[in-house]
Amino acid sequence: MRINTLALAAVAAPAAVMAWGDVGHRTVGYLAAKYLSPGAIELYGSLLANDQGFDISDAATWADTIKQKMPWSSPYHYINPVFDDPPNNCNVTWPSDCPEKKGCVVSAIVNYTSIVLDRSSSHIDRKNATMFLLHLIGDLHQPLHVTGYKTGGNDVEPICWNHEPPETGGSCGGRLNLHSVWDTRIPHKLRGLPTSLDNPAEKVAAATWAEDLFARQQRTTAISECDRIDAGAECILGWARESNALVCDAVLARGEDWILSNDLSDEYFEENKHVVDDQIGKAGVRLAAWLNAIAVVAPPDDSKEPEMVGGGGDL
């Protein structure tokens, strides 16, 4: 069911590094909004209501903005399979690949789902849990957030992109690493965007991308969903393994030596742009199905509290 974009959550200034970048996360949020059920619209409109005009795309970026104030949440954005050796071997082993004390993206989604479902939890806790879900399900579809290889590709550098000159030594690309290529460079080039945008421009770009994805999804085979919110990590682990497989099949398919020796804005971009487009599309559809399933069980919360835990901003 298609709906108008919701005005939802207030956020702080964005952090320096974000999975998918703001444009990707905003697109996931906008796309999910098009599939929300009436019950989900009521629930999340109640939980995330604000008077500052922040919308669902702002809610989808919030979890990155509070990493410094809530450092314990950083491990929730990824899972690092111990035995990853792309392109030869990619696999997620559960639960051994998720540190019990620190947690990971899979366990975080399970835990935050349970908080939103728990009507005895405070309004603030359910609000923050909802915003974590909006963000982390997006993270789970970024392949380099689901690999233990060289800190999710952050240590695969320096990368050449558009023959950029070195910034601080090294070869073409300077400080640019493989993770950043997948977070922002491929998505931005795919959508014809500059390297950086201000928030209003990000929202326009993301809303347009979501519209394109939604239109194409109406004409193609449905994306496989999983809304078993009562089945622990079952659905989430399936998505994680799918993303992890892409590290071998796409991200590092040519091997690290080739990646460090070529301009990735050329042939590499052409080979992988559809992977980014597909993953953003899947994330939006699956996020909506997950949120809709929660809304069936958890009715709206009419209570309101003044601000979000972690200094996320005033409502």
From TrEMBL:
GO terms for molecular function: endonuclease activity; hydrolase activity, acting on ester bonds; metal ion binding; nucleic acid binding. The keyword Metal-binding applies. It comes from the Eukaryota. Keywords: Disulfide bond, Endonuclease, Glycoprotein, Hydrolase, Metal-binding, Nuclease, Signal. The keyword Metal-binding applies. Residues 1-19 form the signal peptide. GO terms for biological process: DNA catabolic process. Belongs to the nuclease type I family. This is S1/P1 nuclease. The lineage of its organism: Eukaryota, Fungi, Dikarya, Ascomycota, Pezizomycotina.
